[in-house]
Amino acid sequence: PSCFGYPLSIFFIVINEFCERFSYYGMRAVLILYFTYFLQWDDNLSTAIYHTFVALCYLTPILGALIADAWLGKFLTIISLSVVYTVGQAVVAISSINDLTDANQDGSPDNINLHIALSMTGLILIALGTGGIKPCVSAFGGDQFDDDQEKQRSSFFSVFYLSINAGSLISTIITPILRAEQCGIHSKQQCYPLAFGVPAALMAVSLIVFVAGSGMYKKVKPQGNIMIQVSKCIGFAITNRFRHRSKEFPKREHWLDWASEKYDKRLITQIKMVLKVLFLYIPLPMFWALFDQQGSRWTLQATTMDGNFGDIQIQPDQMQTVNPILIIIMVPVVDTVIYPLIKKCKINFTPLRKMTVGMFLASLAFVAAALVQVQIDKTIPVFPTANQSQIKVINLGTDRAEVKFEPQLHSVNLTSLEWTDYVTFETSELQSLNIISGNHVTTQPLMLPGGERHTLGIKNNATGIDTMWLFDNVTSKPKEGKNLIRFINNLPDTLTNVTLGDTSFGTLMPFSASNYSLFTGGRSDNIMVTKYSVSCSGLSESFGFGSAYTVIINECSGPHLNVTYSEDIPPNTVHMAWQIPQYFILTCAEVVFSVTGLEFSYSQAPSNMKAVLQAGWLLTVAVGNIIVLIVARASTLSEQWAEYVLFAALLVAVCIIFAIMAYFYTYVDPNEIEAQLDEEEKKAKKAQQIYEKDGEVVSRF
């Protein structure tokens, strides 16, 4: 059956591909934050495991192609590995259910090892599934067309790649929104089960849709895999050369010619062409090492930035959508505007030159990321080391106060409701504290633990100076752009039921403070306070993202509430929009590198060798991710901007090597070489026929 001149079966294949890509990219978008915030891994371990997973996803297509071509055929391979894939997605979704092991209902899993084991099992199954079906689905789609449907086949591949981009774009927008929702049975947490569950459901839909069309598919029988043939030929050439290594055997023009005893000249010539291209692939993994960090390091960078775009709140993992959006815009712009302009300027912009420019642009994108990181680092507060203490003083009284840290280390002068920043002291040097306010003077000995931040509240009254020590217990900026909020009751009365939004801080005695509570970033909530059964309320100011505030309650009379906000940790001030330039440069790099790379490969090798080149190309992506994994684990650089610069420098070095290799590369026309081989085979056949005729004549005599 056909529709608009297309086999009806391909509509099932396009829908299947859209759902599968939605499933994969949706899950991958939130993966790094799941590692960091749910499994509580540090940035380096999270990055290493993320890139190990991506590397696996690009290694398994070789396995998938071998299974399909040599054993099961494309149809059965897609179905069996899709089942594995769906199970993997479901296992990851289950692993992210907080309440699975939260027996004491405190909001954090009690048996984190179980969650890690389930996550890793699920990710291995996903890598097997997504990688295994990757080389089969597009080729299976191509099989549905007859030989006279070349035009339809070509437009099918365009629609097919459009469905890939649409699936990845939509899922990268949706799953971070689902992740940011609050859900849970015992305690409300970020909703990873939903963020992973929706991609799992889409994968199940993808499988159902594909099976539904099974009666309409053309199923081509497995015809053997060209990669196995190529490997056998190369293996035979190497062993044969080793056997004939003594000087009595004459040298051959190329080491592959040692396979000529067993394999025909055509195959050997084709493999020579492929190896020439694969040799050029050697520097390419470094490009992918930078490119795939969009989903890891760049997403982690976005978590330390301000995602407030007016009425819209952008999640850190949503910034990855900038790439597919820009791809859709940039591919036609580059093809129809940039390349023709370069041609008009009489510049010979060969494919290898385009790829060199792409590598250079990717290193520039990382320089841009490093510049953004430097600005972010300026906003991150310095926390005390193990031998230091930090003290912030708040004057909660109505009189001016002077505080001296003895012996003569530091002194501050504060008016009413004024506070200092955190002042750093060597813990061993701090001995005592001298406070003068109004007519009163007090001295206190100091014995503070090292490596901590402390807040000192002071208040002068009729009988003397009251002091209040708060142990902040905060050693880093709040993660995920969340806010830490606490209250100080600066009234002589007890306050009951102090709430911010839905969170209750309980009862606050006169001149006392609550502990910090964690809130979702970017919100302003209603503050409610009850004094002697009378409620006062007011809307808080916006706390931004990644901040900590102490809210001082100064007055509660009738409905009127007077509070002062003391900033303990400043909010993220570098806007996420500053990531757009680095995404733009990297997308330009992808357009001139990735698109050109595959086109160039296919133009330089015979058509029956496309599978080998596809495998080689995917292998460069896998090796690129392994490079990131090694650097993330082995790097001794403490500053993130320095790591970005290191990657940029490595790519520039590789880019120079690639440019030299490209300079000495001579372009070939596979069709011309194939025609020559055909000609030679014809001549050889004619010679054989003449020889056989002559043999017949001789035998008659």
Summarize the structure in words.
The protein is an alpha+beta fold. It has 16 helices and 23 strands. The strands form 7 sheets. Strands 15, 18, 19, 22 and 23 form a 5-stranded mixed beta sheet that branches. Strands 10-7-13-14 form a 4-stranded mixed beta sheet, with no helix packed on it. It has a 4-stranded antiparallel beta sheet with strand order 9-8-11-12, with no helix packed on it. A hairpin with a 5-residue loop joins strand 3 (182-183) and strand 4 (189-190). The longest helix is centred in the N-terminal third of the chain and has 32 residues, at 112-143. The model has no long low-confidence stretch (mean pLDDT 87).
Task: Please specify the SSE layout and strand pairing.
Layout: E1 2-3, E2 6-7, H1 9-38, H2 43-72, H3 74-95, H4 112-143, H5 150-180, E3 182-183, E4 189-190, H6 192-212, H7 226-243, H8 265-281, H9 285-291, H10 297-302, E5 308-309, E6 312-313, H11 322-344, H12 351-379, E7 388-395, E8 401-406, E9 410-414, E10 423-426, E11 432-437, E12 440-445, E13 452-461, E14 464-471, E15 483-489, E16 496-500, E17 503-504, E18 512-513, E19 517-519, E20 526-531, E21 534-539, E22 548-557, E23 560-569, H13 580-603, H14 610-634, H15 640-663, H16 670-700
Helix pairs in contact: 1-2, 1-4, 1-5, 1-6, 2-3, 2-4, 2-14, 3-4, 3-6, 5-6, 8-14, 9-14, 9-15, 11-13, 12-13, 12-15
